[in-house]
Amino acid sequence: MLPLKYPRVWLGLGWLLLILVMAGSVVPVIVVKGFSAADKLVHGGSYLILITWFAGLYRRQLHVFIALVLFALGLALEVIQGQLPYRGFDPLDLLANAVGILFGLILAQSVLVAWCQRLEGFFLAANSSS
């Protein structure tokens, strides 16, 4: 983990995000059969947020590992959905997850490198100057 002033807060919020994604994946929802762009955007956006969040807490060398773990989580959740009477396995959801992870990984490796550390530094510097 990167040296952070509040690592437990950042990790706790990250775990909260994970729990929200997992819960949202198994609760009953109104599902429209066929391709739903909004559903795919939710999938892609959720996994983009997850990879970006956790990549911001860890050094770059671990980002691909984090991406693989998140993809495995998405696969496991799709398999679980396939077992639920009110949900179903959708390979397009997996694809949307993967696209979100890929875009998030690109952001985490370029523009948002160590975003969490930089954000803490910004707020700590702002608080020390006031």
Give me some keywords for this one:
0% strand; 130 residues; single chain; 5 helices; mainly alpha
How would you portray this structure in words?
The chain is mainly α. It has five helices and no strands. Helix 2 (37-55) runs antiparallel to helix 3 (63-83) and helix 3 (63-83) packs antiparallel against helix 4 (91-109). The chain is elongated, with a radius of gyration of 17 Å. The two termini are 29 Å apart. The model has no long low-confidence stretch (mean pLDDT 93).
Secondary-structure map:
Elements: H1 7-26, H2 37-55, H3 63-83, H4 91-109, H5 115-129
Helix pairs in contact: 1-2, 2-3, 2-4, 3-4
Number of helices: 5
Mean pLDDT: 93
Rg of Cα set = 17 Å
Q: Tell me what portion of residues adopts beta-strand conformation.
A: under 5%
Order of helices and strands: HHHHH
Main beta sheet: none
- Dominant shape: elongated
Assembly type of the shown chains? single chain
Poorly predicted regions: none
Number of strands: 0
Work out the count of structural domains: 1
- The N- and C-terminal alpha carbons lie at a distance of 29 Å
Share of helical residues: over 70%
Determine the structural class based on helices, strands and strand pairing. mainly alpha
